[in-house]
Amino acid sequence: MTATAQTSFNPGKGVGQPVGVAVLGMGTVGTEVIRLMQEYSDEFAARIGGPLELKGVSVSDLEKPRPGVDRELLTDDAMSLVQRDDVDIVVEVIGGIDFPRRVVLAALKAGKSVVTANKALVAAHADELAAAADEAGVDLYFEAAVAAAIPVVGMLRRSLAGDQIQRISGIVNGTTNFILDAMESTGATYEDALAEATRLGYAEADPTADVEGHDAASKAAILASLGFHTRVTFGDVYCEGITKITAADIEAARKAGYTIKLLAICEKIEVDGETKVNARVHPTLIPSEHPLASVKESYNAIYVDAEAAGSLMFYGNGAGGAPTASAVLGDLVGAARNKVHGGRAPGENTYANLPIADFGEAITRYHIDMTVVDRAGVLAELAQKFADAGISLRTLRQEEGERHNYARLVVVTHSAREADLQKMVEELEALDDVQRIDSVIRLDS
Ligand code: NDP
Ligand code: HSE
């Protein structure tokens, strides 16, 4: 069991005392954090009870122009900066895992509170980071790591701390939503849409993390950990990105009344009488009238289903410099207040320690598009195959095929075990009457 507990109390520096801040990284997010911190310095001082003082900014390239920042503050030695006596809080907006992990651990061990936007780091090393923060009696905040400006981490940590959460699902990656939306609404190519998302500062330094679903999987791990009081790491999340989604898939979905979105789904499921956690990320068909279908561009939206609260939906800017800086600065104010007045932020607690379900145990629905031999009885034969496997069909539609003697068959299943659905697809592929499976996309409604 990896439950964390807060072990020490921070007595506080006292009202009016300055709070020293080091910012690691001055790219899309760091630039906006520093700009807003300087522009609203009086507001922050009033809200915190003492001024924020920027003590240093670490970057990798000291020669790049950094408008609005005193060159004296720049360094390429993040490790020394985070351990300086005049630094109270470290803001990590570099990205990646190995280097930020070392530098964040060094900061926590040196007694500095840490604010990070780095979902990859948190999803991979949350236990280690939380333990280091507890040992030093400092704060570890990561609101910006999930869905940028949407305050979903604080909502799970605080507002819903008294409820029982069953499911958390939604769009948590701005880049892929931007790409899918552009392909659907303007007919943009995948490549052009990705280039535009990168230009706008939505994509990760290596956009593979976005398009392969890794970024959303990290966020799903964080959400599931917080929601289900169970440590869920990146490796526990089933992950499928959008790279195989074609313009033809999007057009076929549109004609059938669906939109394709990359969804993160975290839920508690019952497997043989045992409650387990399932977290997954994959392209998903949703009905065009579903609220998530209207989430455009780089916006994110998250549903939380809780026992007492019912269904909640959170919507807003899911990527970009200023929206992410809003979340980082909210955390910075929280950490600075604790430095001035004493106390600590609520930590994570993984007391429930639920087992992680295999992806095959998840309950999903499939939309299968296939090309079959156009002969009498083929529809009945395929319907029987599904019946034999115990998979109930919602719709089975035959359309004229593109080639003579072939028909297009579109099957929508009811919910079934993922493993059974996968096996069914393998069996269909092996049939002589099935020329090819054109696409298999999961469905949520
Ligand atoms: P960028 O790539 O724009 O910026 C990264 C910054 O880190 C650059 O300033 C770079 O320096 C600096 N850097 C790189 N290596 C080092 C190093 N070894 N030491 C010190 N500084 C270094 O990234 P973003 O601002 O987009 O993202 C930062 C973090 O925020 C990531 O974890 C990302 O996942 C997260 N995030 C990003 C969002 C977004 O919309 N962009 C939204 C939510 C979270 P230099 O300037 O010299 O190249
Ligand atoms: N690359 C991420 C996205 C940034 O597109 O959602 C926000 O976490």
Automatic annotation (TrEMBL):
GO terms for molecular function: homoserine dehydrogenase activity. Residues 367-442 form the ACT domain. Catalyzes the conversion of L-aspartate-beta-semialdehyde (L-Asa) to L-homoserine (L-Hse), the third step in the biosynthesis of threonine and methionine from aspartate. Its cofactor is a metal cation. It catalyses: L-homoserine + NADP(+) = L-aspartate 4-semialdehyde + NADPH + H(+); L-homoserine + NAD(+) = L-aspartate 4-semialdehyde + NADH + H(+). Signal peptide: none annotated. Keywords: Amino-acid biosynthesis, Methionine biosynthesis, NADP, Oxidoreductase, Sodium, Threonine biosynthesis. The keyword Glycoprotein does not apply. The keyword Oxidoreductase applies. Belongs to the homoserine dehydrogenase family. Its EC number is 1.1.1.3. It is an enzyme of class 1 (oxidoreductase). Pathway: Amino-acid biosynthesis; L-threonine biosynthesis; L-threonine from L-aspartate: step 3/5; Amino-acid biosynthesis; L-methionine biosynthesis via de novo pathway; L-homoserine from L-aspartate: step 3/3. SUPFAM superfamilies: ACT-like (SSF55021), Glyceraldehyde-3-phosphate dehydrogenase-like, C-terminal domain (SSF55347), NAD(P)-binding Rossmann-fold domains (SSF51735). InterPro entries: ACT-like_dom_sf (IPR045865), ACT_dom (IPR002912), Asp/hSer_DH_NAD-bd (IPR005106), HDH (IPR016204), HDH_cat (IPR001342), HDH_CS (IPR019811), NAD(P)-bd_dom_sf (IPR036291). This is Homoserine dehydrogenase.
